[in-house]
Amino acid sequence: MSVLNHGRKSAGGGLFAAGRHRERNSDEGIIPLINVVFLLLIFFMLAGKLSQIDPFEVTPPDSASESLPDGSTLTVLVGADGRIAFDGKPMELDALPAALEAHARDGAVLRLKADQQAEADRVIEVMESLRAAGIEKLSLLTTKTGTGE
């Protein structure tokens, strides 16, 4: 029986010894790690959503409505204790029209997120202040009944 080695001689002397003693490149272990990190980065970019944290706790009332809120990012918060916040900043009711003045000219839709424990009189005061500031379209945020969202 004749074995052709094509003129190569291995250091170990065996027929396939050259493949067993192949030195590992130090980059070979890093490339899969980089691939996994990029895949995780892409996953979190697609699955994650950055949102602004409310300056105080607000639990909207339940609703049976199936409609979703519009894409507006302008939100006025009314807390259970009557505190008001706009654009992530707590403020007094008197300062709200001035803060909304620029947005009212754009015809923007504003979202009102009032706590379910907030007094109705306070929410109505805020709504009247919004109307006085020129806001014509207002969405009241609620949670879907039974979901707690």
UniProtKB/TrEMBL annotation:
GO terms for biological process: protein transport. The keyword Cell membrane applies. The chain crosses the membrane at residues 29-47. InterPro entries: ExbD. One of its GO terms (cellular component) is plasma membrane. It is a single-pass membrane protein; Single-pass type II membrane protein. Keywords: Cell membrane, Membrane, Protein transport, Transmembrane, Transmembrane helix, Transport. It is found in: Cell membrane. The keyword Mitochondrion does not apply. Gene3D superfamilies: 3.30.420.270. It comes from the Bacteria. GO terms for molecular function: transmembrane transporter activity. Its main location: membrane. Belongs to the ExbD/TolR family. This is Biopolymertransporter ExbD/TolR. The lineage of its organism: Bacteria, Pseudomonadati, Pseudomonadota, Alphaproteobacteria, Rhodospirillales.
